[in-house]
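We emphasize that the prediction below concerns an isolated chain of 409 residues; any contacts that depend on oligomerization or on bound cofactors are therefore not represented. The input was used exactly as deposited, without trimming of termini.
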Amino acid sequence: MNILLINHYAGSVEHGMEYRPFYMAREWKKLGHKTLITAASFSHVRSKQPEFKKKIFYESIKGINYLWLKTPSYNGNGVGRIFNMFSFISMLFKQGQAIAREFKPKAVIASSTYPLDIFPAFYISKLSKAKLIFEVHDLWPLSPKELGGYSKYHPFIQIMQIAEDFAYKHADKIVSILPKTKEYMISRGLDPLKFNYIPNGVLIENETKHLPDDIQKILKNLKNNGKFLVCYAGSHGLANALEYFIDAAYLLKDENVAFILVGRGPAKESLKQKAYSLKNVFFFDTIHKLSMPDLLSFMDALYIGLKKETLFRFGISPNKLMDYMLAGKPVIHAIDAGNDIVKESGCGISIEPENPNAVYSAVKNLMALDKNSLEIMGNKGKEFILKNHSYSILSAQFLDVIKGISIEN
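Result of the prediction step, given as a token string:
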């Protein structure tokens, strides 16, 4: 089966986030299916952009085929990003007939966070007489309304609302990455029989990379000095609420514990300034994804946090949490959401977000446990992830959704 996966922000192991399209396509290839990932040439979530000057460019990455569509670059979430979105949708419409004629998809997946890609996806699916699946990462336009304060009467929001409602009406199936969205979607006109939940996942990689020597040297020195290492690895954005992680480091500055932050993002410099006087906080740049297991192997506990947002009532599915749990390390989970797989699996401590005293208490509680108890706790998360979030499992579930659609030709 030929699968067209449209994801504006799709990345790869060479370009960085987001990885889900690449990993799904790689698993589908193992099962005998061919995927064409169609993405924009520029995405703010990638660490590296594809390099080309033509308006369209086909590329094979580790055996997975990509169609890159030229779009303008942008900074932030302003007009530039909106123009980038509409440029991608326009290019996709223009290439629709060629994609349908040359690739001949049997399934078309619209999966670009924002819902506008449902229109060209619908067009291509009709040309190809293909099955149409709408994959939901975030609830748009609800997300920009609740997080960005946009009015429901804003023209941008109204266009997004038309697209979302169109998707629920015309897609053959809906796949939600978030677990608690079904009732909301029904309120927007979704037939409940169309709904499917397939979360984010992890790929069990045999290939790994060692950490850079300078990072290894520092971590080994900390471990040799008996430090209890607590790590955050991921984007340093405002939403990640890392200022409370630093506040907890202040509270624990006289304890035998070190706080490790790995990654980049707009809040990183302010966080470094906040931690300037602390001797127990260490910042490192982004590492290769294949080096993540090596990094996490040094740690005694792993931290994830998000700011309080009502939107999280629909649940969350962060990739970094999956990586944490796969590492078999206890997790400090400072998120208030509609789901909590740390609590469900028993692999750590769930605490109130935006509360450095709660982080302090969680770290102290974990430090009080012996090595065996920490290992037992961490392994509960690993077992949970292997059972429920392996991409080999999730890709098969997605194929079952596609195969369950009957199309009248």
